[in-house]
Write a structure and sequence with these properties.
alpha+beta; five-stranded mixed beta sheet; binds zinc ion; 41% strand; rod-shaped
Length: 160
C-alpha cells in the first residue's frame, strides 16, 4: 500500500483500504489468505515524520498441527511504524535500511509504502501451532486416522 505524502495532511488522519495479499508481497509459501487484507491506518504526521498505527484483519488458511486439516483462522493484528525522510537517498538504499531494524522506516519524501510492515505483521501473527479447534483430537499415532471423525481403525479393532 502506497501513501502519497503530497496528499497526506499534517496531524492525525486515518486511511482504510482492502488489499490483495500479493500486493504486499505475501506469497503462497508464506500463507494462504482468503479474501483481502482489511487495513486501517491511523497516521500522525509532523512534517516529514509520520507515526503509523495499523490494524489488520484477515482470514488465513492454516493446516491444523494435530489433524493436518485445512481450516480458516481469522486474525486481528496490529503494527506500528515510525517513518522519517531519508537524508541521502543516493547513499542509503531501501533494502539496506529494511535490514537495519531500528524500527524506523524511511521514505523519499513523496511516497510511503508500508507493505513490508504489513507482510511482517501477518507472518509474525500466524499461530506457530495452529489448531482447527482447541479440542482437536488429532491423528492416531498408530493408524493415522483422523480421530475427530470417530474412533480410528485400532480403536475399532480393539472394540471387536
Ligand atoms: Zn485439527
Ligand atoms: Zn488408530
Amino acid at each position: 500500500m502506497q501513501i502519497d505524502l503530497k496528499h497526506l495532511p499534517q496531524g492525525r488522519s486515518t486511511l482504510d483500504d482492502e488489499l490483495p495479499p500479493e500486493s504486499v508481497g505475501i506469497t503462497r509459501q508464506d500463507v494462504t489468505v482468503e479474501g483481502p487484507l482489511k487495513l486501517r491506518l491511523s497516521l500522525d504526521r509532523r512534517g516529514d515524520e509520520v507515526w503509523i498505527r495499523g490494524k489488520l484483519q484477515l482470514v488465513a488458511v492454516q493446516e491444523c498441527s494435530r489433524c493436518l486439516t485445512d481450516f480458516k483462522e481469522p486474525l486481528d493484528l496490529e503494527f506500528e511504524v515510525f517513518c522519517a525522510k531519508v537524508h541521502s537517498p543516493n547513499v542509503v538504499s531501501a533494502s539496506v535500511v529494511d535490514e537495519d531494524d531500528q524500527g524506523v522506516h524511511v521514505h523519499d519524501g513523496r511516497i510511503l509504502s508500508v507493505d513490508h510492515e504489513i507482510r511482517e505483521a501477518v507472518i509474525l501473527g500466524l499461530s506457530m501451532k495452529p489448531l482447527c479447534k482447541d479440542t482437536c483430537a488429532g491423528l492416531c499415532p498408530t493408524c493415522g486416522d483422523d480421530r475427530n471423525l470417530g474412533p480410528c481403525r485400532c480403536a475399532r479393532a480393539a472394540a471387536g
